[in-house]
Amino acid sequence: MSTTETTTTAPVELQKGHIGQSIPRKEDRRLVQGQGIFFDDVRRHGTGYVHFVRSPHAHAKIVSIDVSAALELDGVYGTLTGDEVAIQSDPFFEMSVPPGANIKDYALAVGTVRFMGEPVAAVCARTRELARDAAELVEVGYEPLEVLVDAREAVKNEIVMHEDAGSNVVWSGVFDWGDVDQALAEADHVVKIDRLHFHRFSSTPLECAGALVEYDKGTGEWTLTCNHQMPGVGAIWMAPALRTGVDKLRFVTHDIGGGFGNKICLHPQYVVLCLMARKLGRPVQ
Fold first, then answer.
1. Quick one: three-class SS letters along 34-96?
2. Over the stretch 227-271, which tens digit does the pLDDT of each residue have?
3. pLDDT for residue 24
4. Pairing between β-strand 139-144 and β-strand 112-113 as defined by DSSP bridges
5. Measured over all CA atoms, what is the biggest interatomic distance in the chain, rounded to whole angstroms?
6. Helix, strand, or coil here: 225?
7. DSSP 8-state secondary structure symbol assigned to residue 116
8. Bond from prior residue into 231 cis (ω within 30 degrees of 0)
9. Measuring CA to CA, how many Å separate 81 from each of 7, 72, 87?
10. pLDDT at position 14, please?
11. Is 50:285 a contact under the CB 8 Å cutoff?
12. Nearest one of 80, 133, 115 to 273, comparing CA atoms
């Protein structure tokens, strides 16, 4: 081709696409008409409702738990404590190498609570309201311990939260990819920050996390009608803790009223429900 010649391109007619268009979501009609199915829409005969007893302390030894007053209420089906969980299940495996891998983390607090609101017991009753009232009758004796509220103080290891790990620094590592030194050398600007502070935050979906759990004594299988975002991951954590195979956990997940990530790590609550359903021989929610 000579330097005087030019090339031409035929004009392309742009097709009308999605940009700038209002595209209705395919599930909207069903949901706005009330035809969605959420875990709380599913009903089973004789279902018991579970309420958790939570620690008012950020760090404390559990001295005693007395559930007798709660069990005396008419309509209370049963209770579950951390000691029972430790007998009937194993700690969740930790996705870490030592010392983080040495942490023993159960579905309910065992021996020590390490954050305010940590569940220490569970009560199951005929109604949600009765379960909540009965939970207030559970007497828990605590021996308060020193608390940690600053990561800079935590790394000093003067107060160790998990004795099995022996350190508050349970994992340390560097993630890199490619020639980092070359990338830094060729960069137009390099920003160096000695310390970053991230505020506490949480997502706020419209639907709370929950599940309806049924246990089949004949097959040893649990069916969980729930709103877990990643039930496959949940089963991987739960099955070893429950001392069973993943084939014994059947997850039924319909619609989820928002999650944003905080409905992934629901396995502690679900294990409590599984143990309670098996202990009481009834569906629990």
1. CCCCCHHHCCCCCCEEEEEEECCCCCEEEEEEECHHHHCCCCEEEEEEHHHHHHHCCCCCCCC
2. 999 999 999 999 999 999 999 999 999 999 999 999 999 999 999
3. 81
4. unpaired
5. 99
6. strand
7. T
8. no
9. 80, 16, 10
10. 62
11. yes
12. 80
Residue 107 in contact with residue 275, Cβ under 8 Å? yes
User: Which two tokens mark 144?
Assistant: 């308060």
CA 284/CA 278 separation, integer angstroms:
10
Identity of residue 224 = L
User: How far lies 98's CA from each of 93, 171, 225, in Å?
Assistant: 12, 8, 35
Q: Which two tokens stand for residue 237?
A: 């954590």
Contacts of 204 (CB under 8 A, 6+ apart): 258
Does pTM surpass 0.90?
Answer: no
As given in the structure block, the two tokens for residue 256 are 């989820």
Instruction: Count CB atoms within 10 A of the CB of residue 181.
Output: 9
- Cα–Cα distance, 271 to 285 (Å, whole number): 12
> With 0-12 CB in 10 A as exposed, 13-18 as middle and 19+ as buried, what is 265?
middle
Closest CA to 109 of 55, 45, 182, 30: 55
CA 271 to chain centre: 11
- The owner of tokens 């800079």 is 152
Q: Both ends of the chain: CA-CA distance in Å?
A: 77
Q: Kindly state the tokens that stand for 16.
A: 């009308």
